[in-house]
Amino acid sequence: MPERSRKLNYRELEEQQQYIEDIRTMADRPQTYHVVTYGCQMNAHDSEKIAGMLQEMGLTEAKIRDEADFVIFNTCCVRDNAERRALGNVTWLKEVRKHNPKLMIGVCGCMIQEPGMAEKIVKQYGFVDLAFGTAVLHRFPEFFWRALHEEHVIVETGGEDVIVEGMPARRLRHDAAYISIMQGCNNFCSFCIVPYVRGRERSRDMKEILSEAAFLHENGCHEIMLLGQNVNSYGKNEKGSAFPELLKALDDVGIERIRFMTSHPKDLSDELIDVMANAKHVLPQFHLPVQSGDDDILRRMNRHYDRKHYLDRVQKLRSAIPGIGLTTDLIVAFPGETEEQFEHTLSLVDEVGYDSAFTFIYSPRTGTAAAKMPDQIPPEVASDRIQRLIALQEKRQREEMMRFVETQEEVLIEGLSKRNANEISGRGKHGISVTISGSENDIGKIIPVQITGVKLNTLAGIRMDESGCQ
Ligand code: SAM
Ligand code: SF4
Ligand code: F3S
How far is the CA of 369 from the centre of ligand 2 (A)? Predict the structure, then answer.
């Protein structure tokens, strides 16, 4: 069974609760907050927890960042541009503080866990009031309290490799929710900084996850997204992973839609595919990052699978779950990648035909194995490769998405369309965005839709609840 997950003990809970109470009753504390989130769903869910704690302290959300009394940046450092964007925005707030001297600034998340970053914050970003890493998130009330009472910058990194249960979260949506099932990563892909900043893999207790899901179900939630850097290795021990068992148990809770991400191809078992194929509520979609289509690059990336294994998993998924939505992550210009090796990635993308793909130019991350590899690829070569990859992916995606035309999808509406005020959009069961006519009143509902066509990244459809053809 999963290990190293624990609840905050009574003393720790009391301590944090005391800080929350103290802040709540302070006369001149900040009244409003704004959380800026970078990076992946893990960070988005951490931001919900930060917002939950701030609301318990009596602060309310300011929709506009520059109007808040406390702004906190939850940062990402997976690529250099994510890091630069976060630091640029933090620096901009220094200007905002000139007009609002009481403004408090916090920085947290993966970037703070990078070696040397805490010292850099103190030295170069002395106007920041508090900075803390991912493993000490549950102590945020204490850091906030200290920042209100102490003159110097509060900086806290490190912390135990355990999961903390029982933190209040302010979920952004009531119809769909994130559930974190495991944290950290043991894979050490040679390009990736995540294991260094998020620590080793640790899984939550299955009972805790099930009771969180049951609570959400009772409160009208339609969809849960299970989160982890490698959900396939949830509760992994000598006998294998407990993820299929968890998925089966969650299927019985009754929530209409269950999704999960991310899965590592080396850990995608036949058992998991069988559970998905037989489940009532697990959606027919799979995010399976491949990174490269070339065996030598995959070996040097330390991915522990080859092209043949990957294609075998895709074939198995497609025969067990016909029409399954497939998405991936791809990196171009990994150190030493030749034109021929890049073309192997192109041919894999052509062969698989993904419904969508996140495409990245390799970004060297200090401390990772790949950053020390020779033959880093010149930017102009990288830029040419990514453009060719995107062009091919867009073409294949349009072709693949045609399989949905004239089929029906149940779409969970997420919001108003950005382009047209009379349109709404949401995700179908296969994970693809669908746009239909509608209004704000439809947000959070599951609407049956007849798919009529393919746009660039989305499907267009007509709603069947209004056309009478249901
Ligand atoms: N755990 C997930 C997996 O293994 O598939 C991925 C998590 S990572 C946060 C998301 C994606 O970022 C990766 O799949 C990879 O494509 C990309 N990525 C990670 N490190 C990168 C780097 N140094 N340069 C470019 N892309 C990177
Ligand atoms: Fe990074 Fe690899 Fe872990 Fe994913 S599996 S988080 S890419 S080290
Ligand atoms: Fe970024 Fe951390 Fe996620 S580095 S991608 S926010 S785990």
Answer: 13
What are the pLDDT digits (tens) for 226-249? 999 999 999 988 888 899 999 999
Question: How far apart are the CA of 44 and the centre of ligand 1, in A?
Answer: 16
The pTM for the full model equals 0.94
- What token pair was written down for 166? 């029982």
CB neighbourhood size of 4 (10 A)? 14
Place of tokens 């509406």: 413
Q: How far apart are CA 80 and CA 69, in angstroms?
A: 29
Residue 448 has pLDDT above 90, yes or no: yes
What amino acid occupies position 185? C
Kindly state the tokens that stand for 62. 């300011």
435 - beta bridge partners? 425, 460
Residues touching ligand 3 (Cβ under 6 Å) are: 39-40, 42-43, 76-78, 110, 194, 197-198
Helix (H) / strand (E) containing 345: helix 339-352
Instruction: Verify cis geometry, omega within 30 degrees of 0, for the bond prior to 262.
Output: yes
Phi and psi angles of residue 423, each rounded to the nearest 5 degrees, phi first:
-120, 150
CA 454 to chain CA mean position, Å: 26
Strands 433-437 and 423-427: antiparallel
Angle between helices 270-278 and 243-251 (to 10 degrees): 10
Strand 446-454 versus strand 459-463 pairing type: antiparallel
Residues 6 or more apart whose CB falls under 8 angstroms from that of 338 comprise none
